[in-house]
Amino acid sequence: MLIRRRRWLLSGLPAALAGASSWAAPLRPPRAPGGEPQPLHYPRHNKMPDPQQAYMVELLQLALGRGSKPYRLQALPMTMAQGRTMVEMAHGGNELDLMWTMTNREREAMGLIPVRIPVDRGLLGWRLMLIRQADVPFWRKLRSLAELAPLVAGQGHDWPDAEVLRANGLNVGTSSSYEGLFRMLARGRIDYFPRSIMEVDAELAMHADEGLVIAPHVMLYYPTASYYFLAPQHAEAAEQLRQGLEECLADGSWDKLFQRHYSALLARHQIAQRLVLRLSNPLLPEATPLQRKAFWLQPD
Hints:
This protein has a domain at 11-122 and 225-264: Periplasmic binding protein-like II (D-Maltodextrin-Binding Protein, domain 2, 3-Layer(aba) Sandwich). The protein is an alpha/beta fold. The chain is 31% helix and 21% strand. This is Transporter substrate-binding domain-containing protein.
C-alpha cells in the first residue's frame, strides 16, 4: 500500500479489451419485430437521482448508434439493490436488459455478459469520504491508512467495495438501505462513507441538512472498473456495444463526452492537492484490462 501526493493528468482513451461470458439457460426472443428498434431496459438502483446516468446513457447511445441494428434505451421505474438486479437479469424473470456497475469475480460469474471496457476510466475507485462536519479537525491531521484503520466505513451490504476495504485492513459497517447509510453517518454509527468522485457532489447536496461534508485533504484510490452488463439473451447487443465503444475510443468521440461530463468535476475537487491512500483490489477478475496503462485515469 502506498501513499502519494502527485499531479493528475487527463489522457486520451485507448482501444479497449472486451469479452463476454456464456450461459446455458434458454434465451428469450427479441421483443421488437422487423426493423423496429429493440428496447433495452435499464433499472434504477435507489431512489436518489443517479449522477452517472446521463453520461452512461449518452455513451450507450453513442456506441450502439454505430451498429446496424437499432436499439431504444428505456429506464424502468423500479428501485432494486445492485446484487438483486444482477440476479434478476441473469435468470431472465423480468424486463431488465442491461445495467452498469462495478465488476468483480463473483459478478462476472453470474451468467451475465460483461462488456469489459471500463466505461468510467476507473473513476469509481476514486473515493472521497463523506464525514460529519464536527470531525473535520481530525481528518485534516490524518496522514496514513494506519490512522484510518480504527474508524468504521459505511457500505451497502452487497457492494463489492465493502470487501475491498476489508481486504486492506479497514473496518466496515454495512446496511441494506442506501439511504440508511447517510443516517448512520449523521448519527455516528459509522465514521465515514467513501463515495466515488462521480457521485459525491449530488449525494452531499441531497443531504445538505444532515451536517455532512467531504473530508478535506485526503482520498482513497483502488483500481476498479464499471462495466455495462447485459442479460444473457442480448449477446448480439453486447457485441454491437463493444464494437461501438471501440470505434468511439478510436475516433475521440468518447473522450470528448467523458471530458464534457467530468473534467470540471476533477478540477473542482483539487485532486493534485489531496493525499492519496492507495488500496489493493484482490476482487478484480483476471480479464480486467489493467495492462492497458493509458486506459485508466490515475490520481497521479
